[in-house]
Write the structure tokens for this entry.
Amino acid sequence: MEKLWISLLSVAGGALLGGVINALIGRYAAFKESQGVAGALSAEIGSLLELVKVRQYKPQLDQIVGRLSVSTNAPTTDDIFRARIQHDYFTVFNATCSRIGTLGPLAPQVVNFYAVGKSFLDDVAELGELCARVTTSQAILDRATLLGMSRAARDFLSWIEREGPQVVQRLNEYSARRWLQR
């Protein structure tokens, strides 16, 4: 009878230990995945920030807003901000979207960054459509409307340039942390 109890306790202890080990392995795998997501998003956001800087979007928008702010200036198509957007610049975000929740408290910041980024791209697309309509005489340039659209795009871009580096830094810190470290 004593051997039976020892056998049963051994089986139960082994099963418990096996379960604990499996749980730890699962948690470690989830941790490594979240580190990979953070690293990839950090790289994408950093690249986007560099692209915006190299293409000098902000100075262009500042000049356009400056010209449009002078009420005596009649707007021309040169006062419409245009940027060629032919690619999906959010490929990493789109690919990792279902796993952003693994970033814990960073997830809302990341989603917010991309939401503002998409809003900026929407504004740029709208400005491009306006330019096409004006060029084909399907629309007339209204200085106040164009000024409002240009300011909105500039404000989104200013937010991106201000908040983006902080998001990158937080993602880098997150991806550099050690397992079981808080």
